[in-house]
Design a protein that fits this description.
Length: 120
């Protein structure tokens, strides 16, 4: 299975276009534009499995910097600042890596923000 089996190729392209410039990546915005914030828990787990390059069950900081390239091989690498911000937002237990449950919790927080604050 590939990411385009779960996410629309046009939504992925739009999300990547939105963060082309260094230090412009926002995980919240990327998840919204790509459509990830609208996916079910099981779909998010499958997306996580695809993004977990070494299949360790976690996305570590070294893998996270290549996050955009998992969506398109020619995409840029996240900056150190973007990587650390993303890790801090999705690492729910502070162990320095993101598990599938961390992504689910992060997406859940995005959904709650959208519902209570009409944040698009």
């Amino acid at each position: 299975m590939s990411l385009t089996d779960i996410l629309s190729p046009s939504d992925i392209a739009a999300a990547l276009r939105d963060c082309q410039a260094p230090d412009s990546f926002s995980p919240k915005k990327f998840f919204q534009i790509s459509g990830m914030s609208k996916k079910s828990s099981s779909q998010l787990k499958e997306i996580f499995r695809i993004l977990d390059n070494d299949q360790s069950g976690f996305i570590e900081e070294d893998e996270l910097k290549y996050f955009l390239q998992r969506f398109e091989c020619g995409a840029r690498v996240l900056t150190t600042s973007e990587t650390k911000t993303f890790l801090a937002a999705a690492d729910h237990d502070g162990d320095g890596k993101i598990g599938a449950e961390g992504i689910n919790l992060f997406i859940h927080r995005i959904r709650l923000l959208r519902m209570c604050c009409n944040d698009v």
